[in-house]
Amino acid sequence: MNGLMMQKQLLISSLIVHADRHHGDTEIVSRRVEGDIHRYTFRDCHRRSRQMAGALTALGVRPSDRIGTLAWNGYRHMELYYGVSGMGAVLHTINPRLHEDQVAYIANHAEDQYIFFDLTFLPLIKAVASRCKTVKAFIAMTDRAHMPQDAGIDLLCYEDLIEGSSPDYAWPDLDEQCASTLCYTSGTTGNPKGVLYSHRSSLLHTYAAALPDALNCSGRDVILPVVPMFHVNAWGLPYIACMVGAKLVFPGPALDGKSLYELLEAEQVTLSAGVPTVWQVLLTHLEQTGQEFSSMARTIIGGAACPPAMLRQFQDKYGVAVLHAWGMTELSPIGTVCSMKPKHWEMSYKDRLTIQSKQGRVLFGVDMKIVGTDGRELPWDGVTTGDLLVRGPWVVREYFRSEGGNPLQLDEQAQGWFPTGDVATIDGDGFMQITDRSKDVIKSGGEWIGSIDLENIAMAHPDVFQAACIAARHDKWDERPLLIVVRKPQTDLTRDELLAFYEGKIARWWKPDDVIFVDAIPLGATGKILKNRLREQFGEYLRERAVVQCAPLAKRSD
Ligand code: ADP
């Protein structure tokens, strides 16, 4: 017997309809590429999203057509989030930090019909335009007065499209299983792979991610997503804000410490979200200026492990609670959030920090387990490490156009679970901790050394700005940890001082064999450290050093 409840489809358009009806005067504030601050309301955003949907229909866009964007976090991008998906087309957010060859590859693979771009990315558009075979026109996200002259390619003007279109457009009743959004993984190995979200998966993710034990968002919040809208839907925050009626603040291209701080303060932001490398820049700015936050209550840190030193700095020095989260493009993206349970509040602060450094527990909807190389499930004891598998209604089943094969079938052991490529422990309370990405694990004499632990210790040193630990090849132990470090400005930390800092904090054989100081560590398109690049550069360092100095080998007896 079926239930007798309404068959209302879960649609992205319903989020902006809700925001308009119930939070119509709530603001969306954006720093524009034109340089100024723009402000309007959810009601304005809804009207212009409908106008954009009407304009796209007039341009001949049909359901399921892919529409690309190369854009920062801003109100026009938000209008496309709703206008494109709401009309039944597929919003394809392209990461503009990718190499132009990859941008062209992705646009062709997705068969984008139109590409919208912020003026910042005009040089990129010029570089790829002739290679984008399916694109009918490029649309500059600006008004007539700012349209580029002599671009050399035919461009449409965003504001002209809006002005020429009526707000009478009515959102269609779509099937909730329809594709809504397309986002490609960074492709550090092989070609980028497209993850195609549906209206249903996006709505379920929005409900779950907004909950108090997840990102804890409400209409009382002012949310500034630093995490880009071109990267997994800014972790779902543009959808969540509509669902709960939170004011949104978009930073545009200005992601330096000073600009971010000014915007956080001016708009009295309560909640922000980003990867550790962005926060490191902001914290350095605060240290240098002595400034403090007057409104920020919480920050979500994810995309890479949050070093405990960063956690403490936010919480102890600035009174900002850190929510450590883990996810992937393939998970829409949120899988776990480190939200304390009542018993953790009875612990000492030191012990609680140990829990907070974990990636946390699953949102309802996501199921996870760790398995050994034989595919057998491993115990949740907080110590045993294994390959992390997940499943759930917002987890990828298959990549777009089957690129790279079906992940659920490729891995024989997985059997209907998605293999994340992460190595993790899970404790008795269900708190998961990533010890490494499987491809970054250091295997020394057959034993695993977790690079994240070693990086976290280095990051706790007051003179370290950034640290990455890689597996360097070693004649005796196969691989040994090698630390690559960027010092903070005006500090002169030495190799020996930093290695001495490890004493007593880990087993001695885990201690990095050497430290290399560099001016900058290469970051990928999503702001994460590119360890494969570091391995290419420094992978042979220990062997070469051994030849030159015949240095003593690290003892593993302890
Ligand atoms: P995103 O950066 O949006 O999370 P990606 O698909 O680019 O998505 O990268 C996902 C990978 O990033 C994960 O498989 C994991 O290795 C790493 N990652 C994400 N969050 C964390 C975290 N909190 N701690 C450690 N690693 C993380």
Q: How would you briefly describe this protein structure?
A:
This protein is of the alpha/beta class and 558 residues long. α1 (12-23) crosses α8 and α7 packs across α8.
Features:
single chain, 558 residues, alpha/beta, Rossmann fold, Luciferase, domain 3, GMP Synthetase, Chain A, domain 3, 3 domains, nine-stranded mixed sheet, seven-stranded mixed sheet, 25 strands, globular, disordered C terminus, binds adenosine-5'-diphosphate
Task: Describe, in plain words, how this protein is organized in 3D.
This protein has 558 residues and is of the alpha/beta class. It has 3 domains: 13-365, ANL, N-terminal domain (Rossmann fold, 3-Layer(aba) Sandwich); 367-439, Luciferase, domain 3, CATH 2.30.38.10; 442-550, ANL, C-terminal domain (GMP Synthetase, Chain A, domain 3, 2-Layer Sandwich). It is 30% helix and 23% strand. The strands form 5 sheets. Strands 2-1-11-10-12-13-14-15-16 form a 9-stranded mixed sheet, with helices on both faces. Strand 10 (222-225), helix 8 and strand 11 form a beta-alpha-beta unit. Helix 1 packs across helix 8 (237-244), helix 7 (199-210) crosses helix 8 (237-244) and helix 9 (257-266) crosses helix 10. The longest helix is centred in the N-terminal third of the chain and has 17 residues, at 42-58. Bound molecules: adenosine-5'-diphosphate (ADP). Adenosine-5'-diphosphate is lined by residues 185-186, 231-232, 302-305, 324-329, 333, 359, 420-422, 434, 437, 526. It is an enzyme of class 6 (ligase). This is ACYL-COA SYNTHETASE ligase PROTEIN similar to alkK. InterPro entries: AMP-bd_C, AMP-bd_C_sf, AMP-binding_CS, AMP-dep_synth/lig_dom, ANL_N_sf. Its EC number is 6.2.1.-. Keywords: Fatty acid metabolism, Ligase, Lipid metabolism.
